Amino acid sequence: MKKVFILAGVLVLTAALALPVFAGPKKDSAGGAQVLKVGATPVPHAELLNLVKSDLAAQGIDLQVVEFTDYVTPNLSLDAGDLDANFFQHVPYLESFSAERKLDLVSVFGVHVEPLGLYSRSLKNISELQNGASVAIPDDPTNRGRALLLLQANGIITLAPSAGIEGTLADIRSNPKNLRFHELEAPQLPRALGDVDAAVINGNYALDAGLNPVSDSLILEGAQSPYVNIVVVKRGNEQDPRILALAAALRSQKVKDYILANYNGGVVPAF
Predict the structure, then answer these.
(1) What is the pLDDT along the chain (271 residues), one digit of tens a residue?
(2) CATH topology of domain 34-114+226-269
């Protein structure tokens, strides 16, 4: 299968601000280990968090992983104080979501990249994409724009120069194959593969559906994609000792080796 890799053109910035003193770690009901509650989507985020639970436990931190299957609830739960952090998104999505919902959430550190790819049940090569084919893409602003940029980078469509990372279908200026686009929630895209000719799917949902981004995609973002997946907290908690301990654990050689050994290029370390 022919593979096409691209380098998306957006810089990822992580927050590194002067911060107020953290009030102190949370204790569990028995007054023992410090509880750290982190929301995450299952693959690979929750898997990586569970991998480092014992490392944090050795430091007296009880890492509790709360799994979500959507891209909305983890940020709302963090803002509401039900979580101490979350781990599922990249900076463009965080910035767009926070601006829309008026949330004061910030990135603390990056861990990995999940390359976005175009998948199909019926096509074996991008050249087989026919005139009038149906293509599903994510419906959230940043991943929709990212999907359109992926298609443009591979000569499938052309976007208005002003489209940027939050481009919409209205920004398409050239569609030579007259593709019919369908916008769906990101978690639904793998299940839609039987109903469309192709779908642009986020790396974590592709992995969760048993798809290998390297061997199963028709086109794929390159390993240096700047859409780094980040750990996020409410502003003011960036220097929480539990978060700093989590950063050290998730950016360790142990985690890097695990990523390289288990995801076949579908997840790429960003440290």
Answers:
(1) 444 443 333 333 333 333 333 333 455 544 578 999 999 999 999 999 999 999 999 999 999 999 999 999 999 999 999 999 999 999 999 999 999 999 999 999 999 998 999 999 999 999 999 999 999 999 998 899 999 999 999 999 999 999 988 899 999 999 999 999 999 999 999 999 999 999 999 998 999 999 999 899 999 987 667 789 999 999 999 999 999 999 999 999 999 999 999 998 889 899 9
(2) D-Maltodextrin-Binding Protein; domain 2 (3.40.190)
C-alpha to C-alpha distances, 144 to 29, 33, 93, 122, 163, nearest whole angstrom: 43, 41, 10, 23, 11
Q: Label the pairing between strands 198-201 and 117-119.
A: antiparallel
HSE on the CB side for 104, CA within 13 Å? 6
Phi, psi angle pair for 136, to nearest 5°: -95, 140
Residue recorded with tokens 């803002």: 79
Sign of the CA dihedral with 56 first, then 57, 62, and 68 last: positive
Residue type, 249: A
Domain ranges in the chain are: 34-114+226-269, 116-221
pTM (2 decimals)?
A: 0.75
